[in-house]
Design a protein that fits this description.
- β2, α4 and β3 (about 90-95) form a beta-alpha-beta unit.
- This protein has a domain at about 5-145 and about 170-200 and about 250-255: Vaccinia Virus protein VP39 (Rossmann fold), CATH 3.40.50.
- Strands 1, 2, 3, 4, 5, 6, 7 and 8 form an 8-stranded mixed sheet that branches.
- The radius of gyration is 19 Å and the shape is globular.
- It has 9 helices and 8 strands.
- The chain is of the alpha/beta class.
Length: about 260
């Protein structure tokens, strides 16, 4: 699945505000004394996770960026070199779900943002197995949690939300089940798992992002349940005219291998 650079740029401030800083303390403690860090960013997009995280972890750092889109990889590399305290940036184009423990040799941290809900349970289990077997901690942020709150509320919110969640689960994708499945997978491998909420909070200052997100949210819901299409236009107009405030719930997860309590 590909995302446009414009959409990734639009959401980056909301992502940065939402990610849980509480998980960084235990992560920094785990990484203490490790020397130069090698950090793998899976599904890096334009590199927003690297820009956010690199300034919050000890330097020096070397980043390895994984994505299937070569244009996004090139942009992420340039952005991270220019804006992050890093000593080197490498790129890896291709399928990021095939990583095994041996591929993570020398890796200090595996991280990703808004990725787990796009994977299957088998892919998440394989990723957890690889990280824990390699002794590599993992930080996954902004996994959708399946809950959206709008103010003011209206009756159709529930129907659109249910259809959107079903769309997120299409095929073998985990969608909003990802946080629970990932936590269980890492715990079963023997890791200590910490989770924290990381909600988007969208109000008048994020009107452009709210409109773009809401349009995509309604579109996905209608794709899943065509019966909602007859309501979609009027629903969107009301929502945007009401200057609706939205909380889109996500969850962040930190897994520390060999640290299960």
């Amino acid at each position: 699945m590909s995302f446009s650079p414009d959409w990734l740029a639009l959401r980056e401030p909301a992502d940065a505000d939402a990610r849980s800083a509480e998980l960084l303390g235990p992560l920094r403690e785990f990484l203490a004394g490790a020397g130069e860090l090698t950090i793998r960013d899976l599904g890096c997009g334009t590199g927003s996770m690297g820009r956010w995280l690199s300034r919050r972890l000890p330097a020096p750092q070397r980043w390895v960026l994984h994505d299937h889109d070569p244009a996004l990889l090139a942009e992420a590399r340039l952005n991270l070199i220019a804006r992050g305290p890093v000593s080197g940036v490498e790129t890896r184009e291709g399928d990021l779900t095939g990583l095994r423990a041996e591929d993570l040799t020398g890796t200090s941290l595996v991280t990703a943002s808004a990725l787990l809900d796009l994977l299957s349970a088998a892919e998440v289990n394989d990723l957890a197995t690889a990280c824990v077997a390699a002794g590599t901690p993992a930080l996954f942020t902004l996994s959708v949690a399946g809950r959206v709150e709008m103010t003011p509320a209206e009756p159709l919110d529930t129907a659109f939300s249910a259809a959107f969640n079903a769309h997120q689960r299409r095929g073998t994708l985990l969608g909003p089940d990802a946080p629970e499945v990932a936590a269980a997978a890492f715990e079963q491998c023997g890791a200590r798992v910490l989770t924290r909420p990381s909600p988007w909070r969208l109000g008048p200052r994020q009107a452009v992002l709210t409109a773009e997100w809401l349009t995509g949210w309604v579109g996905a819901a209608c794709e899943q349940d065509p019966g909602l299409t007859r309501h979609a236009g009027a629903y969107l107009r009301r929502r945007l005219q009401d200057s609706v405030e939205v909380v889109v719930h996500h969850q962040d997860l930190l897994a520390l291998p060999g640290a299960a309590s």
